[in-house]
Amino acid sequence: MFIFGNKQCDLNTPRVMGVLNMTPDSFFDGGSYFSGGKPAIDLALKQAALMVKEGADFIDVGGESTRPGAVAVSEQEEMNRVLPVVEAIVRRLDVVVSVDTSSAAVISEVAKLGAGLINDVRALQRPGAIESVVASDLPVSLMHMQGEPPTMQAQPSYLSVVDEVVGFLRHRIACCVDKGMDKTKIIVDPGFGFGKTLEHNLQLMAALEKLNDLGCPLLIGVSRKSMLQHITGRSVEQRLAGSLALATIAAIKGAKIFRVHDVKETVDVLKTYAAVYSNVG
Ligand code: PT1
Questions:
Q1: Active site members
Q2: Predicted confidence (pLDDT) per residue in 93-127, tens digit
Q3: Which of 74, 169, 177, 265 is surrounded by the most beta carbons within 10 Å?
Q4: What is the architecture, at CATH level 2, of domain 2-277?
């Protein structure tokens, strides 16, 4: 059993994390929960409730887009976007609230509001971030990224992308444990699309089972990403089938949490996966 704040969750069966971006500029749902340039809590809460009804076990709230080319936001702006929504979801819905943030101050604030998971695409490398998570006692997802969002797709380069990602995550786990975190509170994520070419993303997916050697549950985010543009030639609105294919492959290779825009469809995929694989071990 994995403990997310005041909720328990068995990660032996795969789980769905629904994406809720409180950003004007995210690549799929950017601006959906804004009204007159301001965060619209009612719209965000409605989408969160829909995703919970569709079977999401986590809602991942983000206030800073980290897609390729995204520009940074101030800590204050991130707080303004994220805190009211985290508070509203915790109060109204039975779901683990995950917060997509790299900021030590945001981590401390959302912990007080009842968030259940910190999802950091920068693997707690910002000053004070590890200490903030340790103080909160919350679990964390550590992700691999090469570079930073504004320029990470300029020229990604690896000797072996799989070895580098595994090595980086092993090092970040060690840093967290060193500063007092319990390893049983750590989730890992290879960071599809974060400083990676199509070839790198495909190599990572083909060898995804190697990440299980780290001894932490595996989270992946491939939903509607541009690797599917390269594979299928389709625009972001037309990438659902490709996203579900990647989710199926990742499930077979041991992924446990799926960060997605399309909760209902992904829940069906994972139920089907579980029906087959629970009988054969
Ligand atoms: C992810 C993830 C995330 N992805 C976690 N958090 C994003 N743990 C935000 C593209 O190529 O995979 N894991 N938070 C969104 N980032 C991207 C990256 C969006 C690449 C789009 C692309 O299109």
A1: 225, 259
A2: 999 999 999 999 999 999 999 999 999 999 999 99
A3: 169
A4: Alpha-Beta Barrel (3.20)
Cβ neighbours of residue 113 under 8 Å, at least 6 residues apart? 83, 86, 87, 90
Distance CA 146, CA 165 (A): 9
Q: From CA 233, how far away is CA 161, in angstroms rounded? A: 24
Which residues are CB-contacts of 261 (< 8 A; sequence separation ≥ 6)?
18, 19, 28, 29, 223, 224, 243
Answer for the pair 104, 140: CB distance below 8 angstroms, yes or no. Answer: no
**Helix 240-252 vs helix 263-280: angle between axes, to the nearest 10 degrees?**
30
The residues lining ligand 1, judged by C-beta closer than 6 Å to any ligand atom, are 27, 66-68, 100, 119, 121, 141, 143, 189, 191-194, 219, 221, 225-226, 259
- DSSP code of residue 276: H
* β-bridge mates for residue 16, sequence order: 258
What pLDDT is recorded for position 223?
A: 98
Burial readout 177-203 (b: 16 or more C-beta within 10 A, e: otherwise): eeeebeeebbbbbbbbbbbbbeebbbb
Provide the pairing of β-strand 96-100 with 117-120. Answer: parallel
Q: Which two structure tokens, joined as six digits, stand for 271?
A: 């139920």
For residue 100, what are the contacts with CB-CB under 8 A and spacing of at least 6?
Answer: 60, 61, 62, 63, 64, 66, 119, 120, 121
Does this model's pTM top 0.85?
yes
Closest protein CA for atom 9 of ligand 1: 66
Nearest one of 179, 188, 180, 108 to 141, comparing CA atoms:
188
Query: pLDDT tens, 126-136?
Result: 999 999 999 99
